[in-house]
Structures are given as structure tokens and as C-alpha cells.
Design goal:
It contains 13 helices and 12 strands. Strands 2-1-3-4-5 form a 5-stranded parallel β-sheet, with helices on both faces. The chain has a 5-stranded mixed β-sheet with strand order 7-8-6-11-12, with helices on both faces. A two-stranded antiparallel sheet has the order 9-10.
């Protein structure tokens, strides 16, 4: 069948569908023959389903259009496999009734192409064929068909099977929509959860750890350092004359200085070091598995980086300095090996007592005292206790 004949058949079938919609029924009503009460099409606002009927036989197309249209379905005819694929892609149908024996492209190939496309793979396909061999039915189901009806078919059987698969398809769509809604809801909840988590752990202005989160993490690192006898150093840092910066340049400039100093500190720390804003213009850092001399080098690098930085805020060049106080986790007798004969029971008790006496509060207090000493020594310097 050439393309012109296909087009002529489509036009004829579509005209028939239009006549049916206007109650200009064909002389013999197949629904009446089956004992089914005729449906008043004019009382239906929306079609109950969109069905694509594919058959190269015009008589079969007209009969199926008549049966389905009078039940309230919107029916689109396709007299060839190629036109069926084009029609399915242009407007996705809810169901496809597909003949097998067609020239150029048979129903099996059409079904295979439909299932290979992401757009059409979920559309249910019912084969309608005069072929009644079991092997052909098996092949149809293997290609993804949901049902198989043999010709000559009964009107009641067609309507029952079509109604079943239309209902199943609608239920499937509702489930898919619900799954998508749940995914969107879960993503929204995840986003909200992350926002709350950030609010609970991050400083709202600088984005670094807030005081509570920093202390929680520092307690964990201190416990680990004491357990494995690792070195650990604590820093307290304070921006010098910060009130003068706020008074001279404004609080917005002061906020920007806080952000810039925080970023400068982070740039000079390792990823696994802890850093947080303790309050106001004060920051703290905990350097894990770092000797005191190495920690002192890091502190000096931070102090110098801040001192040498110039930040342009509202067309004004702003500089600042910081003072740093340091303290070290100091466990006596750490050079001794507990398995050595020289490590007596008394030594072991003293060693354990010394470790237990080293608390985060003590480290912070010592660093705070050192910071006060740095402030009273002219600022922009490092002191330790």
C-alpha cells in the first residue's frame, strides 16, 4: 500500500470517527448487537482514553473505530506500521491495537520499535490478528505486548480487554506520578534537612563551624589524641581593634573583615584541622597530630597572611591584624613505652591520671590566657602557655 492510499484511508477513517461523534452511526450498531446499551457520546465531556488502531484493512479499521468511539474512546487510525510510529510519537496514545500481518512493516517490527523508544516503551500494545498459532502469541508477548486477540473478534471481548488495559495504564500513570511527587518531596526534605544541619553547625556569617559544633568536634579529637598518644595544639585568635574597624568603616565592612579573616585562616590550615568562630571577632583552631613547633609555624603563617592582606570594601582599603594564643596537649612520660620493664605500675597510674587531667576546657583556658598575653604585649603577635 503506497503513501497516498494510506493517507486516503486515514482521511476516510477520521471522517467516520467524526460522524460517529455526531451520532451519525453506521447502519448496523455493533454495540446493539452485543446487547450493550448505546452510550450517548454528546454527554461525554472528555474521552475516556486515547487509542491508536493500526491495521492495513480499511474494513477492520472502520469496525474498530465504530466499536471504540461509541464507548467514548478517542480513536486514531493508522493503516501502516510507519504511519503508526509517526502517530504514536506525535501524540502518545493510552493504548495501541496492532495488527500483525501488514506489508512493508509487520506488527512485530512496529511493536519492537515502540518498545525501543523511551517515549513509547510504556504504552500497552494489544495484538489483533487472524494468526492463532501459539508460537506467534509467545513472540508477541516476548516483544512486550500486554494482550493478544484473535480474529474474528467479539465486540464484548474487545471492549472488556481494552477497558482493562486502559484502566491499568491509568493506574500505572498515577503510580508513576505519585512516585515522582514522592521523589520531589524527598529531595525537598533532604534540602531542608541540610539547611537545618548547616544552621545547627555553621556560623551564619562566615560559614565556618559555630562554637557548639567546633567544641563537639574538638572533644572528639582530644579523646582520640589521648587514646593514641597523638600530639595536639589549640589556637585562640582575635582580630585586633575590631571595634575601631566597625566604628570607622561600618558594621557591613566589619562583617566582610570577619569573612575574609576566616577564609585566610582556612587557607593556611589542613583539611582535617578544625576551625570555627567562637564568638564576636574570636576564632579557634585545633591542629591534630601536629607538633608544637609545626603548629607555631602555622600560627605565624596565619598571622603574617592577615597582616599582609588588604581588602577593598566599598572602595576603601581595609587592613587588620590578629593576635594568637596557643596551648598544647601535654602528657608527661609520653616517651615511655608501657610494655617496657622500666614502666612501673606507679608510672602507669601517673600516666593515666595525667591523660585524664587534660581536658578541652583546660586547653582553651590556657590558649585564652596566652591570647590575653599577646594582646597586652602589643597585639599582632603569638604567645603560648
Amino acid at each position: 500500500m503506497d503513501n497516498q492510499k494510506d493517507i486516503d484511508q486515514i482521511k476516510g477513517s477520521e471522517q467516520l470517527s467524526a460522524n460517529l461523534s455526531s451520532n451519525r452511526f453506521i447502519s448496523e450498531n455493533p454495540l446493539k448487537e452485543s446487547g450493550t446499551e448505546k452510550t450517548d457520546i454528546n454527554t461525554i465531556n472528555q474521552p475516556i482514553g486515547n487509542i491508536l488502531v493500526v491495521d492495513d484493512n480499511p474494513q477492520n479499521l472502520r469496525l474498530l473505530i465504530a466499536i471504540l468511539s461509541m464507548r467514548g474512546y478517542k480513536v486514531r487510525p493508522a493503516p501502516s506500521g510507519a504511519l503508526a510510529l509517526q502517530s504514536a510519537l506525535s501524540i502518545l496514545p493510552d493504548l495501541i491495537l496492532l495488527d500483525i500481518m501488514m506489508p512493508e512493516m509487520d506488527g512485530y517490527e512496529v511493536c519492537q520499535k515502540l518498545k525501543e523508544s523511551e517515549l513509547t516503551k510504556d504504552i500497552p500494545v494489544i495484538f489483533i490478528s487472524a494468526i492463532d498459532a501459539t508460537s506467534d502469541k509467545v513472540k508477541a508477548f516476548e516483544l512486550g505486548a500486554v494482550d493478544y486477540i484473535t480474529k474474528p473478534f467479539q465486540t464484548d471481548e474487545i471492549l472488556a480487554r481494552v477497558n482493562t488495559h486502559i484502566s491499568l495504564r491509568k493506574t500505572q500513570k498515577l503510580l508513576e506520578e505519585e512516585i515522582e511527587r514522592r521523589k520531589e518531596y524527598e529531595e525537598e526534605l533532604k534540602s531542608i534537612s541540610l539547611s537545618y544541619q548547616k544552621m545547627a553547625t555553621q556560623d551564619f556569617l562566615t560559614g565556618v563551624s559555630n562554637r557548639r559544633h567546633f567544641i563537639e568536634r574538638a572533644e572528639e579529637e582530644l579523646s582520640r589524641a589521648k587514646r593514641y598518644n597523638h600530639s595536639l595544639n589549640f589556637m585562640m585568635m582575635d582580630i585586633d581593634h575590631f571595634k575601631n574597624i566597625n566604628d570607622t568603616y561600618g558594621h557591613q565592612a566589619g562583617d566582610q573583615i570577619l569573612k575574609n579573616v576566616a577564609l585566610t585562616c582556612l587557607d593556611n590550615l589542613r583539611v582535617h584541622d578544625l576551625f570555627g568562630r567562637i564568638g564576636g571577632e574570636e576564632f579557634s583552631a585545633l591542629l591534630v597530630e601536629t607538633s608544637f613547633n609545626d603548629a607555631l609555624l602555622v600560627a605565624e603563617r596565619i598571622r603574617k597572611s592577615v597582616e599582609e592582606s588588604t581588602w577593598h570594601i566599598d572602595n576603601k582599603a581595609v587592613n587588620c591584624t590578629i593576635s594568637i594564643g596557643m596551648s598544647e596537649l601535654n602528657i608527661k612520660m609520653e616517651h615511655l613505652n608501657e610494655n617496657d620493664d622500666s614502666f612501673s605500675i606507679e608510672d602507669n597510674l601517673l600516666y593515666a591520671a595525667n591523660k585524664d587531667s587534660q581536658t578541652l576546657d583546660k586547653l582553651m583556658n590556657k590558649a585564652d590566657e596566652a591570647l590575653y598575653l599577646a594582646k597586652s604585649s602589643g597585639r599582632n603577635c603569638i604567645k603560648y602557655r
